[in-house]
Amino acid sequence: MQNMKRWLAAMLSGILLLTPCTIFADDEAAETAVPQSSEATETETAAPQSGEKAAAYVKAVVDFLGLYARYEDVTRESLYEAGLTAALKADPSLYEVVMRGILASIDENSVYFTKEEAQQFLAELSDQFAGIGIVSQTVDNRVYIQSVMADGPAQRAGLLPGDLIERINGMDVSGLSADETLALLRGAAATLVEIDVYRVDTGESLHFSMYRETIFTPSVQYAVKEQNGQKVFYIRVSAFNDETSGEFKAAMQAADAQSIKKIIVDVRGNGGGVLEEAIKMAEMFLPPGALITTEDHKVALFNQVYKSQNSRNPDYETVVLIDGKSASASEVFAAALRENDKAILIGETSYGKGTVQYFKPLKDGAAMKYTTAYYLTPRGNNIHKVGIVPDAVVENGYVPVDMADYHEFSYGTVYRWGDQGEDVKTAKELLSLLGIYKGEIDDVFDTELDLAVRYFQRITGLYSYGTLDITTQIQLWNRVKEAKKVVDEQLNAALSNLAPEE
């Protein structure tokens, strides 16, 4: 009987020793590890060749060992840490790959920056940087040009809002974030950058070459508009950088100096930026203690509430213009004013970026930008991937160009740089109408017109040599005749709301 007990104990021990082992005989086994006999062949346990297969293989091994390894300090986390440390010691160049992978796994707004990229990102948050003069936005993991800065390299070269950026200096940027794409566009002033875009409106693939320049980008512009005998103060906010609230305060002081209380704030196409700047702007319209926004963190202890520190109760009558490209800080500002009954919103449903990112410098000069919280509107709404529906949904319209407003080409003279004539002025007017020429409208064939003509010739399939020949004149006249002008119905609606007909 005693011998029988010893025999059973030996058999049980042998069975247990065979259990906590696994075989990865093919790709499917790498995804679902199944404990089997330890008698695995060398072929069956060979490491997979692709990175994706290797990652699945490692995950299966870590999951298995984290469950079956005997020691208490052996966990999935400790195994991953040990493997990652060993890999980085063996090949330090993997550090950047690892960091980008970690940040990208959080969400599309979390990014790892190299030292150079971090410097460029911080420069972007100021009013000055070296680049080509565009604002971009990510839609469905593709980077589009959201707006083109006036008289910048991008505008002079012919890039347009809505263009999809495909390659920069020959590098395919599909899959990169807007921040990563913009980092490739930034660089030292006077350096060349090559850009390939897909023009969604026409279905064309286009190539552009331009030199980076130091770009000064005031984010606030304003003007006084007349409507039905009343003055309305119009303020355009194109971005939220470190100087925006100061620039906006100067605009509001200009309105106060003229005793204008009817205000339009236009944040259409504004993809956001520094959250604190939007909060400071909102304070200028809100009474003391009014709730502006709340940062909703994973750990409630870190939640932060922003309230107006204004010492007075402003009495402006305000409209905020928004559209599908108004995002992040723009949405914070718009929601704060509407939900405190200080403005109505006109336009189209906003983008819906309701997350807050934190910028964290690292010791080697690199940095991380990662999502830390949702922001909530004053009434507790989370608009992430939802957007803000305006009080009045208004779409802009389009009307044909009235060609009677322009002098038609004589179609008898060829013009080059340095020439003068009425046809030259017509070319400038028509190219300006198409958004290609941004210079002074006169009858002198200058360098800016030369560049504009070259671009127009390139996009219409003509020989691009900068000469305003007869064929180019015919093409330009016909192109404008077929074009349509945007009618800003959204702005018109805002003006009518603030200054209706009596």
Brief synopsis:
The protein is an alpha+beta fold and 502 residues long. The protein has helices at 2-18, 27-31, 51-68, 76-90, 94-104, 115-124, 153-157, 178-185, 244-257, 275-283, 329-339, 422-433, 447-459, 470-482, 489-498, and strands spanning 111-113, 128-131, 134-139, 142-148, 163-168, 171-172, 192-199, 204-211, 213-216, 220-227, 230-237, 262-266, 291-297, 304-307, 317-322, 344-347, 355-361, 367-376, 392-393, 397-400, 484-487. It has 15 helices and 21 strands.
Task: Supply the key terms.
502 residues; alpha+beta; six-stranded mixed beta sheet; five-stranded antiparallel beta sheet; 15 helices; globular
Could you outline the blueprint of secondary structure elements for this entry?
Elements: H1 2-18, H2 27-31, H3 51-68, H4 76-90, H5 94-104, E1 111-113, H6 115-124, E2 128-131, E3 134-139, E4 142-148, H7 153-157, E5 163-168, E6 171-172, H8 178-185, E7 192-199, E8 204-211, E9 213-216, E10 220-227, E11 230-237, H9 244-257, E12 262-266, H10 275-283, E13 291-297, E14 304-307, E15 317-322, H11 329-339, E16 344-347, E17 355-361, E18 367-376, E19 392-393, E20 397-400, H12 422-433, H13 447-459, H14 470-482, E21 484-487, H15 489-498
Parallel strand pairs: 11-12, 12-15, 15-16, 16-19
Antiparallel strand pairs: 1-18, 2-9, 3-4, 5-6, 5-7, 7-8, 10-11, 13-14, 13-18, 17-18, 20-21
Helix pairs in contact: 3-4, 6-8, 9-10, 10-11, 12-14
